[in-house]
Amino acid sequence: MKNLILAKTAGAFFAVLLSSLTTTPGGAQSLPKQGTIEATYTAAGSDVREIGVTGDDVVYFYESTLLMTTNNKTPLMHNVTAHCVESGFSAGAGSRYCVYSDKDGDKFVEAFTHPKGSTSGKGTLSSGTGKYKGIEGQFEWQVVQELPAEKGSYHYVGKKTGSYRLP
Description:
The chain is mainly beta and 167 residues long. The protein has one domain: AOC barrel-like, CATH 2.40.350. Helices cover 13% and strands 55% of the residues. It has an eight-stranded antiparallel β-barrel.
């Protein structure tokens, strides 16, 4: 009987301990009102559609997914994902928009335009929901390493640095 009481007490103790470790007061992690962006990401994407114009020139539509990681000092893009679309003219510039989502379902948008063949550039953050409502930010991006991919697909490791502000 004594062992049964000890087992129940130990079980209740571990249940309370586990519960306290897996929940945070107030729900989601709070985000500082302003901060830096320092993120490394893996991108995987593919051509969705190309429309021939002349010779090798095409109007293209590209879709990708970004998996973001950061260090703990820059929480904005810590463990978020982004669904991105890009369109452009192969002989000219391209424009990309990404919708970032976190584990709570809160979102914000990234936008940038880049010249043909560019592996770096600048962009902006805006249009947030939930904890990101009213976000404004600027960042620089660059492809750090291209990874193997099939024809029509693109895989690479990238880096983003910059800053953001919330109201």
